[in-house]
Every structure is written in structure tokens, then in C-alpha cells.
Amino acid sequence: MTIPRDAKDLTETFILVADDDPIAQMVTTNILESVGYRPDSAKDGRESLEALKSKDYVLVLMDCLMPKMAGLEAPRIIRNPGSDLINSKIPVIALTGLEAKDERARCLNAGMDHLLSKPVNPDKLITVVAQALGQPKPVLPSAQQDDSDTGSGLDDEFLGSIIEKFLAEVPGVVDELQQAVTSEDVIKLRNIGHRMRGISNILEVSSLSARSRDLEQAGDSENMELAGELAAKLIEDLRKLEAALSA
Prior knowledge:
Elements: E1 14-18, H1 22-34, E2 38-42, H2 45-54, E3 59-63, H3 74-78, E4 92-96, H4 103-109, E5 114-117, H5 122-133, H6 156-182, H7 186-203, H8 206-220, H9 224-246
Helix pairs in contact: 1-6, 6-7, 6-9, 7-8, 7-9, 8-9
């Protein structure tokens, strides 16, 4: 397991955050930056591998469900000593919003060292990162010091930026849902449901989270008729939330 050259100087502790969801990525990098880590971002598995070829990162935080190369495929390549990555033994921590009971085993079998549930809790994230790096745990800002399972630990100012980002994305998500229904792309509907569940959990909107989970499950079962009905309801929910947050 790699340990930073100077564990006291977190500004030289470069961490790669691989996540295709820009809002979830914002949350994770914000938490890391709040204690002095230096996070970089990658939007999919392939991009993360390219980054690991060019920079000596000390740790990777990787979403388990990404386009172009799944998060469970990338660590298998990372762990291959014959790859041209800088460090095949770099700690890899899985970030997952999936609820399958065997998810932990799948992540560990793929070569990951630990698993964290999304949305990430600041205290849990920093604890696991510090343990993986063999460092003392950095002190979180007071606004993020919440070690409960449900506490987001996000301060009001940053939460405002998350809401602004969400509002900017709503029209595009609605278009994606409508196009997926028209083309009967049940897998795309499933992926949108998964992503919206993650965002709604960050925003702590339980009704939107439940609807998104239902759409995700309908997609998993490839029930296009049900997925289409749920997509229409999700569009209504998104537009209502958009109106409420914009008021």
C-alpha cells in the first residue's frame, strides 16, 4: 500500500476521484479539499487509467458504475503488474450507490481495498482515506463533522452550489428520459434512475430518491412498460422540485 512521501504535507497528497456524476464528484472533491488533500477528477474508467499513467497518485476513489469502462473493470487493469500504470498497488476505494447485498464482495474481488456507500459521509470518507494511506486522520471543518449514517455534512454555501448545478442539469435529464422512453432504451432509463437517486440522496429529497430507485429497479428487470410509466412520473417530480428550488 502506497504511503505519501511526506504524510504531514497533505497538499502533496494527490488523490484521483473517478465518477461520471458531476454532482457526486463535486461533493467528494469538496470533502477532500476541505482537509487539504489534492483531488483530481476523471469522468470514467478509461480516463482514470490514463490519469494513473501520467501522475503518481497515492489513492483512487472510484465509482462502481461508469460509462466506457465500468468501475469494476478498471481495478482489474490497475492491479495487473504488466500494465503501464505508475503503481499497480495503489489503494482503490469503491464508491457505490448500488444496493445489492453482494456488492462489497464484488468490489473486493475486483481488486478494490474498501467500499463506501454514496452519498459519501465526510467523516467516513476521511477516516477510510487516512487509514488507507497510513496517515493520522485530518480534522474536518466543523460544518462537516457529522459521523452519522445519514448526515451529509455539507455546509449551506456548498449545498447552494450543488442545488445550482442540479437545476442547470434538470432540462437535460428530462430530455434524456423522454428520448430513452421514445427509443425504448430500458438500460438508459435504469442508468438515469441510478444517477437521479444519487443526486436526490445528496439533496435529501426522499420522494425523488424513491421514484428514482423504482425506475432503476424497473430497468434492472428490463420492464420497459413500467420503466416508461415511472420515467413520466420522474419527469413530473423533477419539474416540481425544479420549481420549488427556483422559487
